[in-house]
Amino acid sequence: DILQWPQISKCRSPEMETFSCFWTAGNFYNLTVPRILQLLYKKSNEEDWKECPDYITSGQNSCYFNASYTSVWTPYCVQLASKNEVYDKKCFSVDEIVLPDPPVHLNWTLLNTSQTGIHGDIQVRWDPPPTADVRKGWITLEYELQYKEVNETKWKELKPRLSTMAPLYSLKTARDYEIRIRSRQRTSEKFGEFSEILYVSFSQIGIGCDHCTEEVEFPWFLVVVFGVCGLAVTVISIMLSKQPRLKMLIFPPVPVPKIKGIDPDLLKKGKLDEVNSILACHDNYKTQLYSDDLWVEFIELDIEDPEEKNRASDTDRLLSEDHLKSHSCLGTKDDDSGRASCCEPDIPETDFSASDTCDATSDSDQFKKATEKEEDLLCLERQENDESLPNLASTDPQHRHRNTQSENSNVWAPFEDSIESPRLSVHTQISNQNSLTSTDFYAQVSDITPAGRVVLSPGQKSKLGRAQREGCTEQNFTMDNTYFCEADVKKCIAVTSHEENEPHAQEQGYNEDGYFTTESLTTTVANLGASTAAPPSSEMPVADYTSIHIVQSPQGLVLNATALPVPDKEFNVSCGYVSTDQLNKIMP
Amino acid sequence: CHTSGMLTPNGKEYAQKIPREELTHLILKLLQAWKEPLFHFNQHIEHHQQLPDDSLSKAKQISNMVHELKTGVEKVTEKMQSMGIISNSLNGMASSEGTGLSISNEANMMSDSDFIHCFRRDSNKVQSYLKILKCRIMPENSC
């Protein structure tokens, strides 16, 4: 055996008010006379060693220093000695050796159990050690709880806490648990002794589940949920990624109004040149959409372009070609040239002449004929061209059978109206104007069928032309937006035009969006009678014409029998037409 | 420790017996005594390259906490004096100022470990005194 000296094992203070020191005696007893060990102590500011005041209270081999001997923050030194020998010595201060007693009065209460009854939550409560004066705050304690199942070996720990209660979650009700708690001073690192073990048994309060199965069940619910989610994700990814057919099968595309090959933005921007060129490439759409655009084209081009010769040649060419084609098929022109120019934003009128086919019944062909006639209508001629007139007149019967689709009679309708009769006269007048150009011949649109076909009336021009030649030279036309006032023109019109332009009993024309077709105009004129037909300030009553009362929309016109309410004097009152800008000024 | 010369109650009974004004005064005195030494100590250890940054930041944090604690105790003292809980007899801190100067001189001569040891002890004192003072201010607790 190893000889062991007596030594001081530890000194501790449970509450920072008293402290005790403990030692071991060693194995000297057998050898010599039993020694008497003494514990001497000394405060740092003292000289003499004093003997332990109490050897009994703390048990054997201990020395107990009560409150009167304890100075907390004072350094002490103790030594274990017999009469002559000093076996051990220790120096400390009381606040460093604080090791609290274990908590007392442990108990637990049930918080709740799971639905299946397999697990339960409990709340463990305890009291601080009675020796520690926690109430006055002389010492602040921390507690650490440990628990385990009864047949386990390793304790589970909770984090140290200041409160004297702690919850334990998800304990198995089928098992029993053991709980123990220990405390330490908050500013220290060492824990005191453990408390007594608290036994937790759910069966005692009748909750225990004896026949509960083990929890290692297959989580069907989770499997189902995740499976559905994964399936949905997979389906969505498949649909969105690669299979257009599948996608169309499940998500059929909603048809949007769209014209193949046409960018909707072009239409929005109003770039008619490009639209026309694109449309010219598509034969199907020519007839539908070209009517108005071509009118625009024709109107603008003819008026803006002061070249006479081209027009004359164009119109001649048109007429001659048309005349020729109607009787003998000249065969198709060079389609390539036509096609080539087709897709350029060029003047489409040339295209039409170039790409004319022999198929007189085709829509495009008819359309072209009609558009040519429209061009004839709208074109204003500087020079008279009587030769073209009979040509046109001869072709008029043919045109009468020609059909075109002009579904939209827009703002140009009245223009057409105005141009019907006075074109021949106008061209003499217009020749004085700069902005107007002229074409060689005109055709009067006498009728627009409900289908939107323009029916041309023949032979009008000659009369009109002759009638107008005299007195219209000095007329002053108001030129607004390439319109010219029909009233002014009408003054030059011979009255004889009245019979020619008899209003036909028509069905109601289209009334789309405030538009009025020519036939509705004529109908209105017919209904209103000759008196109202004439514009208020005009001496020449013309049955087919009436003044515009109102422009409902930028494209709409309402014809009125009454006088045009023109508060603004700067308007040429005789002018039956006002531009949109003027109307905007009038209208509120 | 440089604050060893201060007479402070070393037991719970003494802390309960001395007047509250004196206890308050002692607390403030202790906190004041550590203001300068902490400042010097922080400056001193900043040049220590062996110390990790955590220690340096912790030291600064402790200095700030001591300063804030002192400010808080002063405010509480004023409140107590205005409410008549304690008297105004010991308002003058001039004596502590003087001792503070000499104390700081002693503190500069301590080693770092002694410095930390002393600081730990005094902070424990301050905590206990404050707890007792809190208990004594509220009469419902049987302090």
UniProtKB/TrEMBL annotation, chain A:
An annotated GO BP: endocytosis
Residues in the signal sequence: none
Region of interest (Disordered), ranges: 382-413
UniProt entry tagged with the keyword Kinase: no
Transmembrane annotation, as ranges: 218-240
Topology relative to the membrane: Single-pass type I membrane protein
Compartments, record wording: Cell membrane; Secreted
Record family assignment: Belongs to the type I cytokine receptor family. Type 1 subfamily.
Name this polypeptide is given: Growth hormone receptor
Organism: Acrocephalus arundinaceus (Great reed-warbler)
UniProtKB/TrEMBL annotation, chain B:
PROSITE patterns given in the database record: SOMATOTROPIN_1 (PS00266), SOMATOTROPIN_2 (PS00338)
GO terms for MF: hormone activity
Gene3D superfamilies: 1.20.1250.10
InterPro entries (UniProt xref): 4_helix_cytokine-like_core, Somatotropin/Prolactin, Somatotropin_CS
Any Gene Ontology CC annotation: extracellular space
Pfam families per the UniProt record, alphabetical: Hormone_1
Gene Ontology terms describing biological process: positive regulation of receptor signaling pathway via JAK-STAT; response to nutrient levels
Superkingdom: Eukaryota
Swiss-Prot/TrEMBL keywords: Hormone, Secreted
Keyword Secreted: yes
Subcellular location: Secreted
SUPFAM superfamilies, per the entry: 4-helical cytokines
Keyword Ion transport: no
Family affiliation: Belongs to the somatotropin/prolactin family.
Protein name: PRL protein
Gene source species: Acrocephalus arundinaceus (Great reed-warbler)
Gene (name only): Prl_1
